[in-house]
Amino acid sequence: MKNKQFAEELVNRLKELRLKRDWTIKYTAEKIDIGASMYSGYESQLRLPPMELLPKMAEVFDTTTDYLLGCSKKDETTRFPTDIDWILSQELINYRGVELTYKDKENVKVLLEMLLGNRVETINDVSCRKEANQQYD
């Protein structure tokens, strides 16, 4: 791959991964631990990120350096999807360095139920209707 193609591929993938997560340039830069103008320069192809920064970028975007560099066509996440309920059942969970108590975990569950309540009810309603229709078919 030629240098210009390589740079375009890297820039496109960085931007794609950021937009896929609805992250701002500033937020992304903070997660990578660089300045927003520096990161913006990467996406606008004014500069290329140093090779030492690629592993950190891959970690932040939950992908592989191979994907960022264009060596892999598929965005293979490095982690498996995990159910939040399972995470909250674990003994030691921290948020920004503060350990969550049992009560904290229960509050998180309540907030998620409030946030997702309408969506979950809609999914359950559709499932129930499908089951009822199948019984009469």
From TrEMBL:
Every HTH cro/C1-type domain range: 14-68
InterPro entries: Cro/C1-type_HTH (IPR001387), Lambda_DNA-bd_dom_sf (IPR010982)
Keyword entries, A-Z: DNA-binding
GO terms for MF: DNA binding
PANTHER family in the record: HTH-TYPE TRANSCRIPTIONAL REGULATOR ANSR (PTHR46558:SF14), TRACRIPTIONAL REGULATORY PROTEIN-RELATED-RELATED (PTHR46558)
Protein name, entry field: XRE family transcriptional regulator
